[in-house]
Amino acid sequence: MLTERTEAAAPGAGRGRLGREPLLDIYESALQALHLGRLAEAEGLFARVADCDQPELAERARQFRAVCRRDAAAAQSVPGDDPYLLAVFEKNRGNLARALELARAGARDDEDERFAYLVASIHALEARAGEAKTALGKAIDMNRKNRVYAYHDPDFAALRESEDFAPLFAS
Fold first, then answer.
1. Which site among 26, 55, 116, 161 is 20 to 30 Å from 34 CA-CA?
2. Which residues have a Cβ under 8 Å from the Cβ of 50 and sit 6 or more positions away?
């Protein structure tokens, strides 16, 4: 009986709310979609609210719509044009096999010290000390600064502890 009176007094209260406007429901759904990372869905819902006649709500919806667009663009941007950046990206994602493949493609690691250093770093992370030593030696021969970089790089921490690698890290 109490439920019947509540529904009669406030239409829509049967859903647990007191007569909310449909725009607020859409806005709430958009926020939930954004929170869950469903950016396209959230952007579409915010677009429906952005043209409403409530200036504050419309402005807030436009701001969140811009956030959705920005985050969607950032999620799609992968350094595709620069093979070095792509190889570093793959290494940072933990995809070491793909990073190594990219760094060695076309003998890049024989021609570019950045790739030689990256190959050494990947080998060191995979505990392949011999290959890491050879690649790091090549990178240092190409650019002496790589010795300093490797000395401070946590990827080479295990190698720095070994006396076999001391010449690579000596100044």
1. 55
2. 58, 61, 62, 65
pLDDT digits over 132-142, tens only?
999 999 999 99
Q: How far apart are CA 46 and CA 49, in angstroms?
A: 5
d(CA 95, CA 93): 6
Q: pLDDT digit string (tens) for 9-58?
A: 334 433 444 456 798 999 999 999 988 888 899 999 999 999 999 999 99
Give the C-alpha separation, 56 to 60, whole Å.
6
Residues 70, 75, 78, CA angle at the centre, nearest 5°?
120
- How far is CA 155 from each of CA 16, 102, 111, 158, 168, rounded to the nearest angstrom? 56, 19, 22, 8, 14
